[in-house]
Amino acid sequence: MALAHLDLAKKVTVGVDDLVMIDELKDAAIMNIIKQRHARDIIYTNIGNVLISVNPFKRIPLYTQDKIDYYRENSKSANCPPHIFQLAEDTYRTMVSEEENQCVIISGESGAGKTEASKQIMQYIA
To answer: pTM of the predicted model, to two decimals?
Structure first.
């Protein structure tokens, strides 16, 4: 089975894309889904309007111009998989439509990928 990051048109779902859809929102269930997704190189998972990102500790082709174009065209689609570019697009669209400043909070432990996430948001907006 192809990995989800290789072809967005052929979306692969492992667990759920949005954790609000699980029956019981408990730590064990959340961790299980995130571990399953991480094992398949699916490092992004939503929980409502919050994006959870897990550092893959390897290079995955997630940040190409094709991915930027995809999220610019499809970020509002219900079938759009979670991604830092989706978060960037939604934040940008909200800023423009509401004419108000927006903020993205990126937190995590040392080595979690905070700097990389910031770079990807800037790449998308640029």
So the answer is: 0.84
